[in-house]
Amino acid sequence: MKNIEKDIEKQIKSLKQTVKAELLKFAFFTTVLGIIVGTGNNPEWMKGSAAFSVAYIDLQVGLLIMRIDDTEEN
Q1: pLDDT of 72 above 70
Q2: Is the pLDDT of residue 73 over 80?
Q3: Positive or negative CA dihedral for 19, 21, 27, 30?
Q4: DSSP string spanning the chain?
Q5: CA 46 and chain centroid, separation
Q6: Angle, vertex CA 30, rays to CA 70 and CA 33, nearest 5
């Protein structure tokens, strides 16, 4: 029974690491897309909207990763 619990804990930890990695990839590609839109030949409102969206997404990803880290410690 102990081995099963340890195996489940390992799988949960591995899943958390995978989720964090995917969130970071999402944030990176969103940032790159925001830079492309922000520096392209686009209207000013689109540039501002891209900058705000990227900042908001990056903030949310950071908060999610912090929440995952908190659950690992507890």
Answers
A1: no
A2: no
A3: negative
A4: -HHHHHHHHHHHHHHHHHHHHHHHHHHHHHHHHHHHHHHSS--HHHHHHHHHHHHHHHHHHHHHHHHHHHHHH-
A5: 23
A6: 165
